[in-house]
Amino acid sequence: MTGPERIAAAFASCRSERRAALMPFMTAGFPDPETSLEIARAYTDAGADLIELGVPFSDPLADGPVIHDAATRALAAGTGLAEVFEICRSVADRVPVVLMAYANSVLGGGGPAAFGERAVAAGAAGVILPDLPPGEDDEARAALSSAGLAVVPLVAPTTVGDRRDLICRSAEGFVYVVAEVGTTGERDRVPDHLRELVTDVESRVEVPVAVGFGISTPENAATVGRVADGVIIGSRLVRIVDEVDPRDAPGAVGAFLGEVASALRRSTGTVG
Q1: Element (H or E) spanning 154, and its range?
Q2: Across all residues in the chain, what is the average pLDDT?
Q3: What HEC string does 158-223 produce?
Q4: Which of 74-78, 187-191, 252-256 is predicted least confidently?
Q5: Which residue did the predictor score with more confidence, 163 or 53?
Q6: Burial annotation 142-162 (CB, 10 A radius, 16+ → b, else e)
Q7: Could you tell me which of 141, 102, 145, 103 has the C-alpha nearest to residue 120?
Q8: pLDDT at residue 255, rounded to an integer
């Protein structure tokens, strides 16, 4: 089964339960590679349907201070692509893993073909490249797709007109809708424009639509789950890891995700 097929099957399973997919983000190697392995397993135990695995990078333009700090500390702890792929491999037989990587990690070294080969060998199902705009990523996209990965595009509220069409036409796996303009980080509320934005993107694509950026509570997740196929939570989880002893981090994130999973199930009947 290819990456896009695995992702499609995960969303279909959630849709059969009439709920949105739970898609937690984690920074690979934070707070250290060993604990990161346990956090990934805690995600799957808590009900994650897909995992977004962040490849640590020194200048993560799409990420706010919480995830940026985690990436910096993961790099200082010795996290490289080998460690990222080890974490991916540890859970990829249970849930689809989508790598969130910056262009330098993919274009450097052996190039996108070599990156794609290693990612697929580790069990990855897809990749998100937030700093490689459509129209400038054709070679990388082709290489990653040929390797069997879904290349997931992002749509922001400021992505309008023909550009939104261009992005949606290229979508594989799912479309990542950015709820708020800016970088990742916790917000108090779900923006009023979200339903209209998601509805418009859904009208342009055949693949599911997932929403991230700013979702920080089970209540927020349930609200987003009523309008989208998937709910991505990042900064809140990374902050939880930062606030506890590393030995307690898997239990802490698992407990929070359990609450989110329950909230999404309570919103059953509103997706699809």
Answers
A1: strand 154-155
A2: 92
A3: CCCHHHHHHHHHCCCCCEEEECCCCCCCCCCCCCCCHHHHHHHHHCCCCCCEEEECCCCCHHHHHH
A4: 187-191
A5: 53
A6: ebbbebbbbbbbbbbeebeee
A7: 145
A8: 97
Structure tokens at 146: 């040929």
Amino acid letter, residue 8: A
Please choose, from the candidates 258, 217, 212, the residue with its C-alpha nearest in 3D space to the C-alpha of residue 239. 217
CA distances from 253 to 9, 46, 121, 161 (A): 25, 9, 27, 39
Three-point CA angle 79, 81, 82, nearest 5°: 85
Choice among 52, 137, 172, 180 that is catalytic: 52
Which one, of 30, 37, 35, lies nearest residue 56 by Cα? 30
- Token pair for 238: 């990374």
- End-to-end, the C-alpha distance of the chain in Å comes to 24
What is the band of 150 on the pLDDT scale with cuts at 50, 70, 90?
A: very high
Higher pLDDT, 123 or 272: 123
- Give 135 or 253, the one with higher predicted confidence: 253
Whether 63 is a known active-site residue: answer yes
Task: Give me 207's structure tokens.
Answer: 């693949």
Out of 63, 180, 186, 229, the active site residue is 63
139 is catalytic: no
Using CA atoms, how far apart are residues 81 and 71, in angstroms rounded to an integer? 13
Cα(190)–Cα(32) distance, rounded to whole angstroms? 32
